[in-house]
Amino acid sequence: MRIAFLGVSHWHSYMHANAALTTGAVIGAAWDPEPEAVQTFAAKFSCLPAASLREALAAADFAVVMGRPFEIAERGLAVIDAGVPMLIEKPIGTSAAGVKPLIAAAGRNKAFVAMALPHGLGMMAAIRSLDGAARLGAISHSYFRLINGPPQRYVNDGVSWVLDREVGGGGALRNLGIHGISAFLTLAGDQPVAVTSASLGRPLHGTEVEDYAVVVLRAADGMIGLIEAGYTFASMTRGIFEWRVSARNATLSDLGDRLTLTTLDDEDERDLPVTPPARRYDDVMADALRRLQDGRPPAVSLADHQRAMEIIDRCYALRGV
After folding, report:
1. pTM score > 0.90 for this model?
2. If we measure between CA atoms, which residue out of 135, 223, 178 comes closest to residue 316?
3. Please, what are the domains in the chain?
């Protein structure tokens, strides 16, 4: 499997590349409008520094698509037209409308397009296993908290555009909260989901986007989801990750380095296999390639992503953003 990496100035590019290597794939080519980023990436991973997106895709079996939101949308369309399956970063576009052209193109071409959302795989697999064994029960509520360090992190990484509302499509909610919103929508399935409340914190660090957001969602069956996202942890190297799902018979807690399960029919808390957050892109890559090989749809599809983006659009509309 030869993989082309498009948009390697993105701050996730090295994580995706290392993830590809863990699967045994070959990093075939790198491309980006910034030549220095291409040369640095190509030197590190011993791959072709492609002069164009077309050249990068020429011998690719798979692509990883990254960049600014509007660039992701444009590059995704080019990859679909080239007939290459892909793993694509979020967010696609600055609103849900940006996803629609890709959904249409993917439908016409029967393209495989997997979203790079790494945090839900382990927990959702455990939930499906419990549900299949009739040990889950109805879900009461869930809590998805992802708080990273100050937004200066993005400036240091050379991607200060993340803090530009017009380019990034928002702040912590669009960039980080989308992980939790996507997870809640996975739990909700096809149910309608309402935005019960949405509050955006003030920008403590002088940016034009929100440093913090808290959103409450409610599914038609009464299941509630609380999503917290922020750039407010006082460290440039650490943050807070905490996801919980509480059902009638089971409570699952993912604290990043530990995934625990407690059930009423057992009472003993036990640890489940978990990948640390910094290595979860390994899981996303492996899962996407397995699904492609097996002819199965991606874990999180373009349609799923559009639905999450619509929720975020609603939250910003409620707050007048």
Report:
1. yes
2. 178
3. 2-111 (3.40.50.720), 121-275+297-318 (3.30.360.10)
